[in-house]
Structure formats: structure tokens, C-alpha cells
Specification:
2 domains
Length: 80
């Protein structure tokens, strides 16, 4: 295979990769702009937010406890 053909193939592959990268970035930016703003969360009072946080922490603790016992292995990140 002559060197000129190799360079053309390499340049073609690089340009194709660049084109796909630009298209993917454009698509991701379009999807990012389409995501809704979370205005409903801004309307929460401090007390409601603290209550929601407490519920979330309780559910997380239950999930972590179930996972810890299900795996049977000690958690290396667990606090003593």
C-alpha cells in the first residue's frame, strides 16, 4: 500500500472522527438545553426541604443496610 494512500485513509478517518465528535457534542448540547428547570424545588420552604432531606437520608440508610448484608462482605468505606 503506497504511503499516499495511507495518509489519505488516515486523514479521512480523522475527519470522520472529528465530524462524529462535533455531531455528538451538538446533540448533547441540544439535549441539555431541552431539560426542564426544576422550578418546583425552588418553591419549597426550608422546613419542607429539611423534611425531604431527612426522608431521603432514611431511605438511603435502609438501602445501604440491605446492600451491606446482601453482599456479605465488609464495607471498606464504612465508618467505625
Amino acid at each position: 500500500m503506497p504511503i499516499a494512500i495511507r495518509y489519505r485513509l488516515l486523514i479521512g478517518l480523522l475527519l470522520g472522527t472529528l465530524l462524529l465528535s462535533v455531531a455528538l457534542n451538538f446533540y448533547c448540547l441540544q439535549q441539555l438545553e431541552a431539560t426542564p428547570d426544576y422550578v418546583a424545588d425552588a418553591e419549597l420552604t426550608v422546613a419542607e426541604a429539611e423534611l425531604e432531606l431527612a426522608h431521603t437520608r432514611a431511605r438511603l440508610a435502609v438501602c445501604e443496610q440491605a446492600t451491606r448484608y446482601a453482599s456479605g462482605a465488609p464495607d471498606s468505606l464504612a465508618r467505625p
